[in-house]
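Q: Protein A?
A:
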Amino acid sequence: MRHEDGRVTLGFEEGAVYHDAADAFEAAQRSIVSTVPGFVYRYVNSGLNVLGAIIRDQITRRGLPYYQTVYGLLADRLGMASYQHSADIAGNLIASGAGFATLRDYAKLGVLYLQDGVWNGERLLPQGWADYALTPTHTGTSYAACFRANTDRLFPDLPTETAWASGSWDQRIFILRRHRMTVAVANETDYPMDLTVLNRVIATAIAALT
C-alpha cells in the first residue's frame, strides 16, 4: 500500500500470515512507522492489512455480515462468480493477497479500471482513483497503488503507462488504457513465466487490434 504521507512500516512478516496461521490484521497493526515521510520506499503488506482491519471494523459497526458485504462491494457487482478469497486464522479476508479467480473474472477487474471505476453505469471506485492507482509517484520505483507501471520498461514493447496487478505465482492483470485493452495471464507450471515472450504476445495483440 502506498501511504499518502510517504510513511513506511516495518515489522510485518509475510510468513506469519501465509505460513504460520497468524492474525493478519493484528500483525499488521503491530508494525511501526520507521522513516521520515517521503524519503524511503518499500513494498510491504502491512498497509493493506491495516486497511482490511478498518474495512472489517466499519462493516461490523454497521451490523452487516462481513463476508457477504466484502464480496458485495466489488466481486459480486462485477459478476466475478468464480472469485474466492482466503481468510486467516481469525477469519479476516487477507487484504494483501490470497484471492483466486478464473482469468475471465480477473479480466473484469481490468475492465473496471479501463472504465475509470464505472461498471454498468454505476461508479464503484472514486473519481480519479484509477489515475492515482495506476501512476507511480515515488522516485526510483515503478510501483503505484497496488499496481506496477511500465516506467522501468520491464515490457519494452508496451506503452510506458501500461500498468498491471501482479500475483505471487505470475498472475498478472494488464491494463492498457491507451489501447482500451486488458490482458489477464497466469502460470500453472513450476517454472517462471518468460516475460520476454509475454511482452511479444501482448505487443502482437495490440498490433492486431489497432
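Q: Protein B?
A:
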Amino acid sequence: MKTFKEFIIEASYVGNLGLIELVKFHQLATKQQSDEVKQLISNGQHSATWRIVQDVTNTHLQGDQFNESVRANDLYPIKEGPLQKKRREYGGYQLMTIDAQKFKNKFEQQHGEPLNWNQHRLERLRELYHDGVKINDHPLVGINHFNKVDVTDGRHRITHAAELGKKIQVAIHPDDVDKMREHLK
C-alpha cells in the first residue's frame, strides 16, 4: 500500500489533484469514504478514487486520466454564491454530483408521485436557463427515515437537469452520501 506522501507525489502532474484538494478531501470525508479511497488506491482503481475525491471536494479534474469523471458541460449550471456556500457548510452539508435522471426515476418509483409538482416553477426554470441565468442554490437531498431518496429543496432544478440529460450537484449530509450512491447505482 502506498503512503500518503507517495500518493501526493504520484498526483503531481498536469491536470493534477493538488495537495490542497487532498487535504480538503480528508477534512470533509467520512471515515468510510477515507478508508474506501485508501483501499481503491492500493488496488490501483484510480478512476473510482478520483470520482469519490471529486464528489467530496467539489473539484472537477481535467485531463484524459479523469475521463470517467464528470465534465463541466455535463453539469447543470449552478453558481453557488458566498452566502449560499456558508449556509450549506454551516448546516454540515457537502456537495455530491448525481445523475439527475437516475435520481428522478428513483424518487418517482419510491414515492409514487412525480418529482415535478408545479409546472409553473419548471417553466420559469426553463426560461432562466434559456436566458443564461445560473441558479445560486444547490438542491438539498438526502435519505429519509424510510430509506428512500428525498428532496427538501430543489425538485424542479433536478427535474430540469434530468430533462437536459445533465448531472447536478446537490447538497447532502455526509452520512447520506454512501446510501445515495447505493440508491442511484
